Structure to design on (98 residues):
């Protein structure tokens, strides 16, 4: 029984770590989307510090203005250094602050 446990334990640990990483990636995706939407709304109102919250969570952002709309596109790394692609989000709001 000990031998079977010794063989199965590494596989169980890897699966638990991968599951925790995937849950962390989903939580990060939700957080980045929420902060990106907030940044777009604040930029639409003319707030110059709107992107500071994205920088606080370690995300990089780009802003596009056009046709009365401001759009923010953000990307943040996945936590726990897992080999997963970066989390991205995009949000737009009316550009009334210009």
């Amino acid at each position: 029984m000990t031998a079977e446990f010794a063989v199965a334990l590494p596989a169980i640990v890897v699966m638990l770590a991968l599951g925790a990483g995937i849950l962390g990636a989903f939580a990060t995706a939700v957080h980045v989307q929420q902060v990106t939407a907030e940044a777009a709304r604040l930029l639409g109102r003319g707030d110059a510090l709107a992107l500071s919250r994205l920088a606080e969570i370690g995300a990089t952002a780009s802003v596009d203005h056009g046709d009365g709309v401001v759009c923010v596109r953000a990307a943040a790394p996945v936590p726990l250094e897992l080999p997963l692609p970066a989390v991205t989000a995009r949000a737009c709001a009316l550009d009334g602050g210009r």
Summary: Strands lie at 60-66, 69-76, 87-94.
